[in-house]
Amino acid sequence: MTKQVAVILAGCGAFDGSEIYETTLTLLRLDQLGIGYRCFAPDIEQHHVVNHLTQQADADERRNVLVESARLARGEVTPLTELVADEFDAVIVPGGFGVAKNLSDFATAGDSMQVLESLKEVLAGFREDAKPIGLICIAPVLATRLLGDGIAVTVGKDPGVSGAISAMGGLHRSCSVDDIVVDLEHRVVTTPAYMLATRISEAATGIFKLVDRIDDMMS
């Protein structure tokens, strides 16, 4: 495996961490293509913990994003601060509300959001070296804060989120669940996944296309 991709996680679970299906589909496609990968996550406390059965937050429970991400990565996850862009050919961020709660404060701040400083620091190297960046589901909201204005991305058709992207200086493009948006100038690839998907197979089609395009861009 000569190509290497960093995958950045935000916990474990659709409502307070990384979306499990989106992450698994990403890792599956990378492996199918013979691309090496390594998972990273910030060593911080989660914004909150959500009971995924009731979808209610538990005010008394505390969890760590790195520890929770280890559940999803089968224990093989490294602190985000140890991610070195020079060691990888691309980076992918799966979705899940952990992106909007742990990697940023988009869930509460909207278009006034700030991103985690350690994420901004490690992504700077990928941007400077023009290495491909894949953002899935809600993760495209990070683009302007991490990479600058004028980047074309998609979250599907959600008017609230797409409006926030535009307000932050991004260029939102409507997109079906099974497709991708590619900003060739900025080397960014996005897909809606569970912003639109109602079945895992729908999410898989777009995510596989994203990974395939990242693969082409690394060539």
Automatic annotation (TrEMBL):
<comment type="function">
    <text>Displays glyoxalase activity, catalyzing the conversion of glyoxal to glycolate.</text>
</comment>
<dbReference type="InterPro" id="IPR026041">
    <property type="entry name" value="ElbB"/>
</dbReference>
<keyword id="KW-0456">Lyase</keyword>
<protein>
    <recommendedName>
        <fullName>Glyoxalase</fullName>
    </recommendedName>
</protein>
<dbReference type="InterPro" id="IPR029062">
    <property type="entry name" value="Class_I_gatase-like"/>
</dbReference>
<dbReference type="GO" id="GO:0016829">
    <property type="term" value="F:lyase activity"/>
</dbReference>
<comment type="similarity">
    <text>Belongs to the peptidase C56 family.</text>
</comment>
